[in-house]
Amino acid sequence: MQIRMINGDVTVYSEDDPVNAGEKGVKNQVDVANDNCIVQIDGGTLHIYVTNEREDDGIDSNGSIVINGGNIY
Prior knowledge:
The protein is built from no helices and 8 strands. By secondary structure, it is an all-beta fold. The strands form 3 sheets. Strands 1-4-7 form a 3-stranded parallel β-sheet, with no helix packed on it. Strands 2-5-8 form a 3-stranded parallel β-sheet, with no helix packed on it. Strands 3-6 form a two-stranded parallel sheet. The two termini are 23 Å apart. The chain has one domain.
C-alpha cells in the first residue's frame, strides 16, 4: 500500500496505527521491510490522534516513510 499526502488538512482518530502503509493479510517480522509500502507526505497538515492508552505508532509503514514538507501533529 502507498499513501501520499500532497495538500489539505486531514485529521485522523484511531485506536491502532492511524496512518498505516502495510499490505493487507501479509504478516512480516518486525525487521523485514517491504518496498511496496510507502507513506509520503509532501505538504498539508496532518493531525493524528491515537485513542488508546498503548504507545501505538501515529505513522506506520512496513517500508519507507518520506517527509518532504507539511506539518504533522
